[in-house]
Design brief:
Blueprint (H helix, E strand, L loop, with lengths): L1 H26 L2 H6 L16 H7 L2 H9 L17 E5 L5 E4 L3 E2 L7 E2 L7 E5 L4 E6 L5 E7 L9 E5 L4 E5 L1
Antiparallel strand pairs: 1-2, 1-9, 3-4, 4-8, 5-6, 6-7, 7-8
Length: 172
């Protein structure tokens, strides 16, 4: 019975892995973003300051606190919490594309929530098994946190909880 149970678990893990792969290919690849007419203009990304003084000149005080010092804006205070326009959310620090409006959902947490990021745009820094810090992969700016297993009605069962001041929206 033990070997049969191990085999059943292995088959289940394989099925979940295959399903996740097909979900990614269907909804998250750059080819799909192009097919859905989501234009990501990488040429608009700006130079990244090399010093803290450079960042202080480029960002507002709240943006500096959140992006560079890993602060958090007050819940329900950000401009993108209840905003659901069609387009792409960019990093406020370097203008790198991070999230699409197709991945945004209303989680009720008080910050903009996304169930996935644009592939390669966000780095995760594990804090616990339940959540991780997320940063912009281009400039390293703190965006917020990703929470796993909260059972939101999303395809990934993840909630990327992002500070509005870390983002800049560009409509399609």
């Amino acid at each position: 019975w033990y070997q049969r149970r191990v085999r059943d678990i292995s088959v289940t893990i394989l099925a979940i892995t295959i399903a996740a792969y097909h979900f990614y290919k269907r909804f998250c690849s750059s080819t799909i973003l192009k097919k859905r007419n989501i234009n990501i203009n990488y040429s608009k990304m700006t130079d990244i300051p090399t010093s803290e003084d450079g960042w202080k000149t480029k960002l507002t005080p709240l943006q500096f606190t959140v992006l560079r010092e890993k602060g958090t804006e007050k819940a329900f205070s950000g401009e993108y919490d209840k905003f659901f326009g069609k387009g792409v959310y960019h990093c406020a620090g370097c203008n790198a594309p991070l999230f699409t409006s197709e991945h945004k959902f209303n989680s009720g947490c008080g910050w903009p929530a996304f169930f996935d990021a644009i592939p390669g745009a966000v780095n995760r820094h594990e804090i616990t098994g339940f959540y991780a810090e997320i940063t912009c992969s281009k400039c390293g700016g703190h965006l917020g946190h990703v929470f796993v297993g909260e059972r939101h009605p999303t395809p990934t069962d993840e909630r990327h909880c992002v500070n509005s001041v870390s983002l800049r929206f560009e409509s399609n």
